[in-house]
Amino acid sequence: MNEDPWSLAIAGATMREAESGRWPEHAWLLRQSVQTRPYRAMLLSVMDVAAGASIADVGAGTGALTLDLLGHAPGCRVVALDLDAVALEILGRIAASLGVADRVEARSAPAQLTGLPSGQFDWTVCRYLLQHVPDPGEVVREMARITRPGGRVALMDVDDGIDLAYPPYPQPVKDLYAAVGASQGQSGGDRQVGRKLHRLLVDAGLARPVVVFCPHIQAGVVRDPGARAALLERITRNRPQVVAGGLMTPQAFDEALEALRADLDSDRFVMTGEFLAMAWR
Predict the structure, then answer these.
(1) Residues 200/140, Cβ–Cβ less than 8 Å
(2) How many CB atoms lie within 10 A of CB 108?
(3) Tens-digit pLDDT profile for residues 110-161
(4) pTM beyond 0.85, yes or no
(5) Fewer Cβ neighbours under 10 Å: the N or C end of the chain?
(6) Spatial separation of the C-alpha atoms in residues 73 and 50, rounded to whole Å
(7) Structural contact between residues 207 and 173, judged by C-beta atoms closer than 8 angstroms
(8) Where do the DSSP E strands lie in 83-185?
(9) To which H or E segment does residue 262 belong?
Protein backbone atom coordinates (compact mmCIF):
# COMPACT_ATOMS: atom_id res chain seq x y z
CA MET A 1 0.00 0.00 0.00
CA ASN A 2 1.46 3.35 -1.04
CA GLU A 3 0.58 6.06 1.46
CA ASP A 4 1.00 9.80 1.47
CA PRO A 5 3.28 11.45 4.04
CA TRP A 6 0.35 12.77 6.08
CA SER A 7 -1.19 9.31 6.53
CA LEU A 8 2.17 7.89 7.54
CA ALA A 9 2.69 10.73 10.02
CA ILE A 10 -0.74 10.08 11.58
CA ALA A 11 0.01 6.36 11.84
CA GLY A 12 3.35 7.02 13.52
CA ALA A 13 1.94 9.51 16.03
CA THR A 14 -1.01 7.22 16.79
CA MET A 15 1.20 4.20 17.43
CA ARG A 16 3.43 6.24 19.73
CA GLU A 17 0.39 7.03 21.86
CA ALA A 18 -0.82 3.42 21.72
CA GLU A 19 2.55 2.15 22.95
CA SER A 20 3.14 4.90 25.51
CA GLY A 21 1.39 3.09 28.34
CA ARG A 22 -0.64 6.20 29.18
CA TRP A 23 -3.92 4.93 27.73
CA PRO A 24 -4.55 1.31 28.82
CA GLU A 25 -8.25 1.46 27.93
CA HIS A 26 -7.72 3.12 24.54
CA ALA A 27 -4.53 1.54 23.21
CA TRP A 28 -6.48 -1.15 21.35
CA LEU A 29 -8.61 1.51 19.63
CA LEU A 30 -5.52 3.44 18.56
CA ARG A 31 -3.93 0.31 17.13
CA GLN A 32 -7.15 -0.56 15.31
CA SER A 33 -7.32 2.93 13.78
CA VAL A 34 -3.87 2.41 12.28
CA GLN A 35 -4.95 -0.91 10.78
CA THR A 36 -8.14 0.55 9.26
CA ARG A 37 -6.57 3.62 7.66
CA PRO A 38 -6.73 2.21 4.09
CA TYR A 39 -10.50 1.94 4.39
CA ARG A 40 -10.85 5.52 5.59
CA ALA A 41 -8.73 6.64 2.64
CA MET A 42 -11.09 4.77 0.31
CA LEU A 43 -14.08 6.52 1.83
CA LEU A 44 -12.48 9.96 1.73
CA SER A 45 -11.65 9.47 -1.94
CA VAL A 46 -15.37 9.66 -2.79
CA MET A 47 -16.05 12.67 -0.53
CA ASP A 48 -15.28 15.96 -2.25
CA VAL A 49 -14.51 17.90 0.92
CA ALA A 50 -13.27 21.32 -0.20
CA ALA A 51 -10.19 23.03 1.16
CA GLY A 52 -11.11 25.29 4.06
CA ALA A 53 -14.35 23.44 4.84
CA SER A 54 -15.93 23.57 8.29
CA ILE A 55 -16.56 20.03 9.55
CA ALA A 56 -18.20 18.44 12.58
CA ASP A 57 -16.98 14.91 13.39
CA VAL A 58 -19.69 13.41 15.61
CA GLY A 59 -18.47 10.52 17.74
CA ALA A 60 -14.87 11.37 16.89
CA GLY A 61 -13.26 9.12 19.49
CA THR A 62 -9.48 9.39 19.37
CA GLY A 63 -9.75 11.27 16.09
CA ALA A 64 -8.84 8.85 13.31
CA LEU A 65 -11.28 10.43 10.85
CA THR A 66 -10.68 13.96 12.16
CA LEU A 67 -6.95 13.68 11.50
CA ASP A 68 -7.50 12.19 8.05
CA LEU A 69 -9.81 15.06 7.14
CA LEU A 70 -7.23 17.64 8.19
CA GLY A 71 -4.88 16.25 5.53
CA HIS A 72 -7.56 15.49 2.95
CA ALA A 73 -8.96 19.04 2.91
CA PRO A 74 -6.16 21.59 3.43
CA GLY A 75 -7.12 24.46 5.67
CA CYS A 76 -10.29 22.79 6.93
CA ARG A 77 -11.30 23.11 10.57
CA VAL A 78 -12.90 20.27 12.52
CA VAL A 79 -15.03 20.28 15.65
CA ALA A 80 -14.56 16.80 17.17
CA LEU A 81 -17.39 15.69 19.45
CA ASP A 82 -17.41 12.69 21.76
CA LEU A 83 -18.60 11.77 25.25
CA ASP A 84 -15.22 10.18 26.02
CA ALA A 85 -13.05 12.98 27.42
CA VAL A 86 -9.97 10.74 27.51
CA ALA A 87 -10.33 9.92 23.80
CA LEU A 88 -10.53 13.63 23.03
CA GLU A 89 -7.42 14.26 25.15
CA ILE A 90 -5.58 11.67 23.05
CA LEU A 91 -6.80 13.38 19.89
CA GLY A 92 -5.47 16.67 21.19
CA ARG A 93 -2.05 15.17 21.86
CA ILE A 94 -1.80 13.61 18.41
CA ALA A 95 -3.01 16.79 16.71
CA ALA A 96 -0.43 18.82 18.64
CA SER A 97 2.38 16.44 17.69
CA LEU A 98 1.38 16.85 14.03
CA GLY A 99 1.18 20.64 14.26
CA VAL A 100 -2.56 20.93 13.57
CA ALA A 101 -4.00 21.49 17.05
CA ASP A 102 -5.11 24.98 16.00
CA ARG A 103 -7.47 23.45 13.43
CA VAL A 104 -9.23 21.09 15.86
CA GLU A 105 -11.75 21.96 18.54
CA ALA A 106 -12.60 19.06 20.87
CA ARG A 107 -15.94 19.08 22.66
CA SER A 108 -17.39 16.55 25.05
CA ALA A 109 -21.06 16.27 24.12
CA PRO A 110 -23.66 13.61 23.31
CA ALA A 111 -24.16 12.94 19.60
CA GLN A 112 -27.90 13.57 19.80
CA LEU A 113 -27.53 16.88 21.64
CA THR A 114 -24.33 18.58 20.50
CA GLY A 115 -25.14 22.06 21.74
CA LEU A 116 -23.78 23.53 18.52
CA PRO A 117 -25.58 26.30 16.58
CA SER A 118 -27.87 25.32 13.73
CA GLY A 119 -26.65 25.55 10.14
CA GLN A 120 -22.96 25.91 10.99
CA PHE A 121 -21.01 23.23 9.09
CA ASP A 122 -20.20 22.46 5.46
CA TRP A 123 -19.90 18.77 6.38
CA THR A 124 -21.15 16.82 9.37
CA VAL A 125 -19.77 13.28 9.52
CA CYS A 126 -19.76 10.23 11.73
CA ARG A 127 -18.04 6.88 11.33
CA TYR A 128 -18.68 3.70 13.33
CA LEU A 129 -21.00 5.59 15.69
CA LEU A 130 -24.54 4.65 14.65
CA GLN A 131 -23.93 0.93 15.24
CA HIS A 132 -23.55 1.73 18.95
CA VAL A 133 -26.51 4.03 19.70
CA PRO A 134 -30.08 2.95 20.52
CA ASP A 135 -31.68 5.67 18.35
CA PRO A 136 -29.59 6.42 15.24
CA GLY A 137 -32.36 8.61 13.81
CA GLU A 138 -32.02 11.03 16.70
CA VAL A 139 -28.30 11.42 15.97
CA VAL A 140 -28.81 11.95 12.23
CA ARG A 141 -31.48 14.57 12.84
CA GLU A 142 -29.06 16.46 15.07
CA MET A 143 -26.36 16.19 12.41
CA ALA A 144 -28.78 17.62 9.86
CA ARG A 145 -29.65 20.49 12.19
CA ILE A 146 -26.05 21.69 12.59
CA THR A 147 -25.27 21.40 8.85
CA ARG A 148 -25.68 24.55 6.76
CA PRO A 149 -28.16 24.67 3.85
CA GLY A 150 -26.28 23.23 0.87
CA GLY A 151 -23.91 21.36 3.17
CA ARG A 152 -23.70 17.60 3.47
CA VAL A 153 -24.14 14.88 6.07
CA ALA A 154 -22.02 11.73 5.71
CA LEU A 155 -22.67 8.50 7.62
CA MET A 156 -20.13 5.67 7.56
CA ASP A 157 -20.85 2.33 9.21
CA VAL A 158 -20.77 -1.45 9.01
CA ASP A 159 -23.26 -4.15 8.14
CA ASP A 160 -22.55 -7.70 9.28
CA GLY A 161 -24.94 -8.97 6.62
CA ILE A 162 -22.20 -8.26 4.06
CA ASP A 163 -19.86 -11.13 4.85
CA LEU A 164 -18.76 -13.50 2.11
CA ALA A 165 -16.27 -16.22 2.93
CA TYR A 166 -14.95 -19.12 0.88
CA PRO A 167 -14.24 -21.69 2.12
CA PRO A 168 -16.80 -21.01 4.87
CA TYR A 169 -15.63 -20.27 8.39
CA PRO A 170 -15.55 -23.18 10.86
CA GLN A 171 -18.71 -23.33 12.96
CA PRO A 172 -17.05 -22.14 16.21
CA VAL A 173 -15.80 -19.03 14.40
CA LYS A 174 -19.27 -18.38 12.96
CA ASP A 175 -20.73 -18.77 16.46
CA LEU A 176 -18.17 -16.36 17.92
CA TYR A 177 -18.86 -13.61 15.37
CA ALA A 178 -22.62 -14.08 15.82
CA ALA A 179 -22.34 -13.84 19.61
CA VAL A 180 -20.27 -10.66 19.46
CA GLY A 181 -22.82 -9.06 17.14
CA ALA A 182 -25.72 -10.18 19.31
CA SER A 183 -23.99 -8.77 22.39
CA GLN A 184 -23.84 -5.36 20.76
CA GLY A 185 -27.55 -5.67 20.02
CA GLN A 186 -28.26 -6.44 23.67
CA SER A 187 -26.63 -3.15 24.65
CA GLY A 188 -28.76 -1.18 22.18
CA GLY A 189 -26.47 -1.30 19.15
CA ASP A 190 -27.04 -2.55 15.63
CA ARG A 191 -24.38 -4.35 13.60
CA GLN A 192 -26.63 -4.19 10.53
CA VAL A 193 -27.08 -0.45 10.51
CA GLY A 194 -25.25 -0.03 7.19
CA ARG A 195 -28.30 -0.99 5.13
CA LYS A 196 -30.37 1.59 7.04
CA LEU A 197 -28.19 4.66 6.40
CA HIS A 198 -30.14 5.71 3.30
CA ARG A 199 -33.44 5.65 5.19
CA LEU A 200 -31.93 7.53 8.14
CA LEU A 201 -30.87 10.37 5.83
CA VAL A 202 -34.28 10.53 4.15
CA ASP A 203 -36.13 10.48 7.47
CA ALA A 204 -33.96 13.38 8.68
CA GLY A 205 -35.26 15.49 5.78
CA LEU A 206 -32.03 15.43 3.78
CA ALA A 207 -31.99 15.48 -0.02
CA ARG A 208 -30.42 13.47 -2.84
CA PRO A 209 -28.92 10.64 -0.76
CA VAL A 210 -26.05 8.68 -2.30
CA VAL A 211 -24.79 5.35 -0.94
CA VAL A 212 -21.37 3.85 -1.66
CA PHE A 213 -20.16 0.42 -0.53
CA CYS A 214 -16.46 0.15 0.29
CA PRO A 215 -15.37 -3.50 0.40
CA HIS A 216 -12.70 -4.94 2.67
CA ILE A 217 -11.19 -7.97 0.96
CA GLN A 218 -8.84 -10.57 2.36
CA ALA A 219 -7.53 -13.18 -0.05
CA GLY A 220 -5.33 -15.87 1.45
CA VAL A 221 -3.71 -16.16 4.85
CA VAL A 222 -3.80 -13.19 7.26
CA ARG A 223 -0.06 -12.58 7.44
CA ASP A 224 0.04 -9.04 8.81
CA PRO A 225 0.74 -9.39 12.55
CA GLY A 226 -0.87 -6.02 13.23
CA ALA A 227 -4.09 -7.04 11.50
CA ARG A 228 -4.17 -10.32 13.41
CA ALA A 229 -3.60 -8.61 16.74
CA ALA A 230 -6.22 -5.94 16.09
CA LEU A 231 -8.89 -8.52 15.20
CA LEU A 232 -8.17 -10.79 18.15
CA GLU A 233 -8.03 -7.87 20.57
CA ARG A 234 -11.35 -6.49 19.33
CA ILE A 235 -13.05 -9.84 19.73
CA THR A 236 -11.47 -10.56 23.12
CA ARG A 237 -12.67 -7.25 24.54
CA ASN A 238 -16.24 -8.42 23.96
CA ARG A 239 -15.83 -11.53 26.15
CA PRO A 240 -17.35 -10.07 29.37
CA GLN A 241 -20.46 -8.82 27.57
CA VAL A 242 -20.93 -12.00 25.57
CA VAL A 243 -20.68 -14.17 28.68
CA ALA A 244 -22.80 -11.86 30.86
CA GLY A 245 -25.47 -11.81 28.16
CA GLY A 246 -25.71 -15.59 28.17
CA LEU A 247 -24.65 -15.80 24.52
CA MET A 248 -21.69 -18.14 25.13
CA THR A 249 -20.19 -19.83 28.16
CA PRO A 250 -16.68 -18.75 29.14
CA GLN A 251 -15.32 -22.08 27.93
CA ALA A 252 -17.16 -21.87 24.60
CA PHE A 253 -15.90 -18.33 24.04
CA ASP A 254 -12.30 -19.26 24.78
CA GLU A 255 -12.44 -22.34 22.56
CA ALA A 256 -13.99 -20.33 19.73
CA LEU A 257 -11.32 -17.65 20.12
CA GLU A 258 -8.62 -20.30 19.76
CA ALA A 259 -10.42 -21.60 16.67
CA LEU A 260 -10.38 -18.08 15.24
CA ARG A 261 -6.69 -17.71 16.02
CA ALA A 262 -5.92 -20.95 14.19
CA ASP A 263 -8.25 -20.04 11.33
CA LEU A 264 -6.21 -16.95 10.49
CA ASP A 265 -3.71 -19.36 8.91
CA SER A 266 -6.36 -20.59 6.47
CA ASP A 267 -6.18 -19.71 2.80
CA ARG A 268 -9.56 -18.03 2.45
CA PHE A 269 -11.32 -15.30 0.48
CA VAL A 270 -13.31 -12.93 2.71
CA MET A 271 -15.24 -9.81 1.80
CA THR A 272 -16.79 -7.52 4.39
CA GLY A 273 -17.10 -3.76 4.19
CA GLU A 274 -18.78 -0.57 5.22
CA PHE A 275 -21.30 1.80 3.73
CA LEU A 276 -20.84 5.51 3.15
CA ALA A 277 -24.12 7.40 2.77
CA MET A 278 -24.20 11.12 1.97
CA ALA A 279 -27.00 13.61 1.49
CA TRP A 280 -27.51 17.35 1.11
CA ARG A 281 -29.09 19.63 3.67
Answers:
(1) yes
(2) 14
(3) 999 999 999 999 999 999 999 999 999 999 999 999 999 999 999 999 999 9
(4) yes
(5) N
(6) 6
(7) no
(8) 104-108, 121-127, 147-158, 164-166
(9) helix 250-263
